[in-house]
Design the sequence.
């Protein structure tokens, strides 16, 4: 049972690392597309950096998923080593992974509204007039079309593998 749980955890770890890898490869093109959209709207292109918006693999877009993947991989190693107390660790780590993935999914689904709200809070009238949906669509166009499928597959893998691992842990 521990081997199955470890395999599910390694699937989750791989899913978490997938998006930073894509952002590292294609993020510059997405940023270029977003800046072109800002120019089209007559907005200074520096607003992305000024407001911490990144489409590459920098900042929390890398350290967060890589750290999560490292913790999950360490937990998988504990399962493979059949450490006696790994059962409780599985419940804690996998429970947190499911919760974190819910936050990520919510963030993905509310990105336009969140960015619009952040720009409004800034108080900069130039930011307030940005067509955020067009900006995010332009950035998305900088990524290959299959990235949308990967993003959704990533959520399915995380939820399904974590659920299967938790079920296996409950039956162990």
Sequence:
């Amino acid at each position: 049972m521990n081997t199955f749980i470890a395999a599910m955890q390694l699937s989750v770890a791989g899913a978490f690392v997938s998006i930073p890898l894509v952002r590292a490869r294609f993020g510059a093109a997405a940023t270029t597309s977003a800046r072109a959209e800002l120019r089209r709207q007559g907005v200074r292109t520096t607003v992305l950096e000024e407001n911490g918006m990144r489409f590459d693999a920098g900042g929390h877009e890398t350290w967060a998923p890589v750290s999560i993947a490292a913790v999950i991989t360490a937990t998988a190693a504990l399962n493979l080593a059949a450490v006696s107390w790994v059962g409780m660790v599985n419940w804690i780590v996998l429970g947190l992974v499911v919760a974190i993935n819910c936050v990520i999914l919510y963030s993905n689904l509310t990105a336009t509204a969140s960015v619009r709200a952040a720009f409004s809070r800034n108080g900069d009238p130039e930011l307030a007039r940005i067509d955020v949906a067009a900006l995010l669509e332009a950035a998305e166009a900088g990524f290959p079309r299959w990235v949308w499928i990967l993003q959704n597959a990533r959520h399915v893998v995380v939820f399904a593998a974590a659920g299967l691992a938790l079920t296996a842990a409950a039956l162990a």
Residues 2-40 form the longest helix (39 residues). DSSP finds eight helices and no strands in the chain. The chain has a mean pLDDT of 94. Helices lie at 2-40, 47-50, 60-80, 86-109, 111-122, 125-128, 132-141, 146-171.
